[in-house]
Amino acid sequence: MDAEIIDNPEKHRFELPLDGGALAVSYYKEEDGRVVLLHTEVPQELSGQGIGSRLARGVFESLRAKGRRVIAKCPFMAAYASRHREYLAMLDG
Predict the structure, then answer these.
(1) Out of 8, 13, 77, 79, which could bridge 37 as a Cys pair, Cβ 3.0 to 4.6 Å?
(2) Are 92 and 69 spatial neighbours (Cβ–Cβ below 8 Å)?
(3) Residue 62: inside a domain, yes or no?
(4) 3-class SS at 64?
(5) In a domain, 58, yes or no
(6) Which domain, by its residues, includes 72?
(7) What region holds the N-acetyltransferase domain (predicted)?
(8) Per-residue pLDDT of the chain (93 residues; tens, 9 = 90+)
(9) Largest Cα–Cα distance in the chain?
(10) Among residues 3, 80, 12, which one has the least CA distance to residue 25?
(11) 36: which DSSP letter?
């Protein structure tokens, strides 16, 4: 269950494939050269298992590796970044 995060630019989302074909996703848009994280979804039946945090870590690591700046409009992603100070320097706004 340690799948890689997939950037799916056609659907404007990062995806975390899960067992049984389910996906956890984080939607984004590009704005002024930055990635705006809009909304994160984890299948309800898998809620509370740390999947959202795995997705968030993967998203931030992927974006950090590319040197991207981030605006976290998604409350979940903003809260995750605030708890993981290594990602705060990436944030704008």
Answers:
(1) 77
(2) yes
(3) yes
(4) helix
(5) yes
(6) 6-90
(7) 6-92
(8) 345 899 999 999 999 999 888 999 999 999 999 999 999 999 999 899 999 999 999 999 999 999 999 999 999 999 999 999 999 999 997
(9) 37
(10) 12
(11) E
